[in-house]
């Protein structure tokens, strides 16, 4: 249930803001921190949670840590959420076939 860990991680508004920044492309910690009203150490902690949840990847370029969205982590969340859509469509189809009753 990796999707549960990912959803928990995105439950925090600051982590969602960090993740939204990374959706625009890979960024270093300092670049992310410059866009938010939190300290660089706080951004690093939020990135660690997102990384542990499988939502972001980290790579090093010299002394810099570059973060990017992880397509695999997002795929698990998407698959989980699409399950709700499929269930809703099945229920709607059954309702329509019963004539709206």
From TrEMBL:
InterPro entries for this protein: ArsR-like_HTH (IPR011991), HTH_ArsR_DNA-bd_dom (IPR001845), HTH_MetalResp_TranReg (IPR051081), WH-like_DNA-bd_sf (IPR036388), WH_DNA-bd_sf (IPR036390)
Gene Ontology molecular function, alphabetical: DNA binding; DNA-binding transcription factor activity
Record-linked PROSITE patterns: HTH_ARSR_2
Keyword flag Transcription: yes
Residue ranges occupied by any HTH arsR-type domain in the UniProt entry: 1-96
Assigned keywords, A-Z: DNA-binding, Transcription, Transcription regulation
NCBIfam families: HTH_metalloreg
Name assigned to this protein: Unannotated protein
